[in-house]
Structures are given as structure tokens and as C-alpha cells.
Amino acid sequence: MSRGGSRGNVLEGRxxxxxxxxxxxxxxxxxxxxxxxxxxxxxxLEPDELKGVGERLYGESEFWHxxxxxxxxxxxxxxxxxxRFGRVDIVVANAGVANGGPFVDSDPDAWRRVIEVNLVGSAxxxxxxxxxxxxxxxxxxxxxxxxxxxxxxxxxxYCASKAGVEAYAHSLRAEVGHKGVGVGVAYLSWTDTxxxxxxxxxxxxxxxxxxxPWPAGKTYPLGPAVDRIVAGIERRSGHVYGQWWLRxxxxxxxxxxxxxxxxxxxxxxxxxxxxQRVPTGLVGAGGAADERERRVVGDRx
Length: 301
What we know:
7 strands; alpha/beta
């Protein structure tokens, strides 16, 4: 896989693994990688959805039903992907869930699950696929968020998890760079996915978010954000920005907690009564799939 600028189609024939591939960023990313000639391994919790995604891809693909927090299951997936395709060149750790609402009223299990999927699941993904990436001198892209750059009220678990994966990925880059493995972090603001739409179903949360300073308060279309991610993968970028203005946030991130802190309490007080009624479980179809999977596993045990 070429470094620096891209010549021709650098993704042609490469094998890309995408977690959380059943919907949203993962689904569209798989489609765009496939169009560029990549063979795609889809990983997620919704086998029917994953099968449908695979059937719509342009080229060769396969799907695996697995929970990214389950090291044994993911190690099996990594071995089977290597056996199926012969190599792994690109891994995108995209799987994620979210919840919202006041921390003091939050569901402890849902709060912990956000950390497990977003942070621990990303680390498990990196751990099981790194041997193959070392062989191919490949590239690992960690999907993070604006939430890694700046905190926001009512999103304690999500912000903590995304700040965690950003730090993990930057640390990993320093460890594996001499082995030829590139590691990047992708930052996205509010993007039109089922996770964001699920959060917006709660009017108080939607209104509070829309009061964030421009341009952080609006929802952005999915397509252009994923195009930027694909371009970052082609360049093996250390930093990928799903929306143009996020790059500028890096230079002022040290000031952002104070700015958000000044914004948050005033607005939170205004919505306090309504926010206390916000459900604190996982949001969106992806969150519902995660909860179904855990119930099934629990019944088996």
C-alpha cells in the first residue's frame, strides 16, 4: 500500500476489515471501499443486515457476526478473515454505541457498555488484527469523534470513550510505526446516522445540541464525511476529518472545556426537568442490536 500521495487506485485488490458495518458510517464506507476495488470483510452484530450490505457491494466480500468486545470471538474472526482473503491491509475500527442524559441518572450498565464497545472493543479489534497488519505493512483507522476533542454535557460515557480511543490510537501509532503499520484517527461531528437520529428522538437532547455554537450544533450529511474517510485511508493519514472545520478545532482544543463548561450549566439548568426524563439506555438501531445480542448471550449462559 503506497505511502504519501496516492498514484492510481491504491485500494485495488486490498483487503479491508470494517467493524460496525451493518449500517451508517460502516455500511457506506464498505460500499465506497468496494467500488474502489477493495475486498471487504464486514463485522457486526446484525447478520441479516450484514448479509444485505455484502450483497450490495461491488466486489468480493464476506461477513462475520461478532461482538467486538469478545476477544475470543474477534480472534476467531481475524484468523478466518486471513484464511478467506489471504491477507489484511486495512482495518477500520468503527463499531460504536452511545447513550445520553444526566450522568447521575444514567443506567450504569448502559454507561459501562458504551465504554466497553467504543474503547475496549476498538482495542480488541486492533489487538487481533495487528499481526496481519504487520505482515502487510497495513493501516489501522480508529473512528473517533468531535467528542474526543471537546466534552459535552449529557454525553459523559461517549466523550470518555472517544477521548480514550483517540489516546489509544495515538499511542499505538508510536509503537508500530517502525514496523510499517500506519495508524490514523478519524474525527466526525454530528453526522446523519441512526445513532444521531436515535438521540434526536428525545426533544430535550435535540434542542440542547442545537444550541451548541456553530458549526458544532448541526447535523452533517453522511456521504461527504465518508468520502473524506476514504481519502484518509488512501493516504494512510494520521488524522482524518469528516467535516472540514474539525481540523481547526485541534489548535484550540485546550480552551474548549472552559468554553463548553460556561455553556453547559446555563443550558442544562434550563432543561433540567426535561432532561431527567430522557431514557439513558443505548440509542439508535445499533444500540438496540447491541442490547438484543447481550440478551441472547445471557439466555445461552
